[in-house]
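sorry for the late reply, my laptop died twice this morning and i had to redo everyting from scratch. anyway the thing you sent over, i finally got around to it. pasting the sequence first so we're on the same page, its 170 residues, then the predicted structure underneath. double check i copied it right bc i was rushing
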Amino acid sequence: MELDTSRKPDRRLDVVYRVGSGVIALVLIGFGLAGLMVRLPLFDTQGEVVAGLSTNGALGFLSVAFGSLLLGAAVLGGVFASTVCAVMGVAFVGSGLVNLYLMSAGPNILAFSMPNVIFSFVVGLMLMTVGMYGRFSGGLEEGNPFREHRARGPRWHGVRVPWARGRAAR
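ok and here's the structure:
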């Protein structure tokens, strides 16, 4: 994938990516730091309730780490922030599903409770919405970088993909 540095990025999309990932990052970092200040054991399965969610040392550390990644994406902005938000959103929804299962059937090493699962689902859906905003639509504007990518056709490492030629022509 080659980036065209001579063109300005779509500012409206960039604001959505930056603000969305930045706000969610600050919430995650705040929760993680509040959990780390309690100084809970790393893998305590019961956890302590902080801001309505149960936490332990591992969940506090992971919250700060993922929040920092989102904050970095907010600083960089653009397509990178969009991709990070979309991938992190899928990861949060997947984490909610896995921890929903682990609450009753396995080792609950992150001390998840039902409010944590709901929080994970909500944050995941918010991140996916922010990350996919402007990517999937029938009416993408002329300056949208994702429309330009579609217009060039399918490529793999800069080379046009021959087996997708029929689909691109339709």
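Helices lie at 11-37, 57-76, 78-105, 114-132, 145-152, 165-169.
thats about all i looked at so far, will dig more tmrw
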